């Protein structure tokens, strides 16, 4: 046994002879003989220490410590299970009350006038964009849409607290982060209408944005898969010694996925600069949080994985801004993960494929739409500072609406991406199975010219591609 353990035994008042006697006794009484000690030798000193300590006089108080890997653990003679929940729920940080007034003694930093006004303008723009694109989908002009109504502060205020060097790994309800970073309304329109100017070449569902120049990963519909990716991104930032962090957004439903747990543990162990931002809006589509988990939301889970965590009012723009600013500073300067749980409410339906009135009461929706609206609350604060007026408000909403309608008109009149691009950008040499699929597509177009007009650009591009790729040449010969 090591000198360290001998010194430990001596400090506990256990002699070498006592130790040898106890060890022999335990070996003789072991159901599998002394060989069991060879198999679990690393554990034997701890077991023997406890046996030796057990020889103390009855009733004598013991307060010994187990020097366990990862940290010392106190022994207790009392059998006590950890409670499944704390008597009090973890508090929620906020700065503005429901009337847009600063709460006295609130811990917050001053937000510059220019930043505050841009935050409010972008909240209004995001709200207007959601309304018009939702109407466009209902008119059959785009195939799908989902809104951020009720969660505008989470989008814009969190984005305002970051820098362009911070890498965003979104879910599908964070277009406001892109808006803040400079993605134009015309770019939003080109994406949702799937035009040739869409950076995704029309191959993504609407609202599945992505923009490499703005450090915004392309959205994926699969729930929570972005969380381990974000930890990998943060690990790369750490290795490159970048003054930046990764920020990953997800909903409360994502915390029920295995990827959530794997990502938090991975981030904590590897000590990487990542902010986990959970939008707890009470509903994972139609599943309420009460049917999803028994813990006190998501924030308590951060502590379980050794991650510093905070719960904030997601409808309070200043609280979101301050918390993300602080989380970013911790993540980068201390190289650690941080979990932020923002309590909010999804006022709109989950998407245009959903009718939320089927599973939640209308009065609940209306309460959050009016009494807890984050845009109205933030407006009251900027007005209270003398930075805003009704006239400026009307001009802003009118101009945003005009710009967006113009962007939609341009997108509707813009050509779609050439069909051959359905089969590119994955393989350097297009495999034969994709060539066969393209051949089948072209045959379908020829059979139904009224439904699928023949695209001359498609043919031209396809022949050009055939000269570059042997598999494309094979396809052209088989046509």
Describe this structure in words.
By secondary structure, the chain is an alpha/beta fold. 46% of the residues lie in helices and 8% in strands. It has 18 helices and 9 strands. α12 (317-333) links the parallel β8 and β9 (338-343). α5 packs across α6, α5 crosses α7 and α8 runs parallel beside α15. Mean pLDDT is 87; it is low at 31-44, 46-55 and 459-479. It catalyses: N(6)-[(R)-lipoyl]-L-lysyl-[protein] + 3-methyl-2-oxobutanoate + H(+) = N(6)-[(R)-S(8)-2-methylpropanoyldihydrolipoyl]-L-lysyl-[protein] + CO2.
Spell out the blueprint of helices and strands:
Blueprint (H helix, E strand, L loop, with lengths): L2 H9 L4 H14 L5 H5 L4 H10 L11 E4 L2 E4 L38 H26 L13 H9 L6 E3 L5 H7 L3 H8 L33 H14 L6 E6 L6 H13 L3 E7 L2 E2 L2 E2 L10 H6 L3 E6 L3 H17 L4 E6 L18 H9 L3 H11 L5 H23 L19 H16 L8 H13 L1 H9 L1
Parallel strand pairs: 3-4, 4-5, 5-9, 8-9
Antiparallel strand pairs: 1-2, 6-7
Helix pairs in contact: 2-4, 5-6, 5-7, 5-14, 5-15, 6-7, 6-12, 8-15, 9-10, 16-18, 17-18
């Amino acid at each position: 046994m090591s000198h360290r353990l001998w010194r430990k035994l001596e400090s506990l008042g256990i002699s070498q002879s006592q130790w040898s006697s106890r060890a022999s006794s335990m070996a003789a009484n072991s159901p599998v003989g002394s060989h069991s000690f060879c198999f679990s030798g690393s554990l034997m000193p701890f077991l023997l220490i406890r046996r030796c300590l057990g020889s103390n006089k009855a009733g004598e108080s013991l307060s010994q410590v187990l020097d366990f890997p990862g940290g010392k653990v106190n022994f207790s003679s009392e059998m006590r299970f950890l409670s499944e929940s704390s008597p009090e729920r973890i508090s929620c940080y906020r700065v503005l009350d429901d009337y847009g007034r600063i709460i006295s003694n609130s811990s917050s930093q001053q937000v510059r006038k220019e930043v505050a006004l841009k935050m409010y303008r972008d909240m209004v723009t995001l709200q207007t964009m959601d309304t018009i694109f939702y109407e466009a989908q209902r008119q059959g002009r785009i195939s799908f849409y989902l809104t951020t109504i009720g969660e505008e502060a989470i989008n814009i205020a969190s984005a305002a607290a970051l820098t362009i060097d911070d890498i965003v790994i979104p879910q599908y309800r964070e277009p406001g982060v892109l808006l803040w970073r400079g993605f134009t309304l015309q770019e939003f329109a080109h994406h949702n209408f799937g035009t040739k100017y869409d950076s995704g070449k029309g191959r993504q569902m609407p609202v599945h944005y992505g923009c490499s120049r703005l450090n915004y990963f392309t959205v994926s519909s699969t729930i929570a898969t972005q969380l381990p990716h974000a930890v990998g991104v943060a690990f790369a930032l750490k290795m490159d010694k970048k003054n930046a962090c990764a920020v990953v957004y997800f909903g409360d439903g994502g915390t029920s996925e295995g990827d959530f747990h794997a990502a938090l543990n991975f981030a904590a162990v590897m000590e990487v600069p990542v902010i986990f931002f959970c939008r707890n809006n009470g509903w994972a589509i139609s599943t309420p949080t009460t049917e999803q988990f028994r813990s006190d939301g998501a924030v308590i889970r951060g502590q379980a994985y050794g991650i510093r965590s905070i719960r904030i009012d997601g409808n309070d723009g200043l609280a979101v801004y301050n918390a993300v600013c602080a989380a970013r500073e911790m993540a980068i300067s201390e190289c650690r993960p941080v979990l932020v749980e923002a309590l909010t409410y999804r006022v709109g339906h989950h998407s245009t494929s959903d009718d939320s009135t089927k599973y939640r009461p209308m009065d609940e929706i209306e309460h959050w739409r009016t009494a807890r609206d984050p845009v109205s609350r933030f407006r009251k604060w900027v007005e209270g500072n003398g930075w805003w007026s009704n006239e400026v408000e009307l001009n802003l909403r009118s101009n945003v609406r005009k710009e967006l309608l113009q962007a939609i008109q341009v997108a509707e009149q813009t050509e779609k991406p050439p069909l051959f691009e359905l089969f590119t950008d994955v393989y350097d040499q297009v495999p034969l199975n994709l060539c066969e699929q393209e051949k089948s597509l072209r045959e379908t177009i020829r059979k139904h010219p009224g439904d699928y007009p023949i695209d001359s650009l498609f043919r031209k591009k396809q022949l050009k591609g055939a000269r570059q790729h042997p598999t494309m040449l094979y396809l052209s010969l088989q046509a």
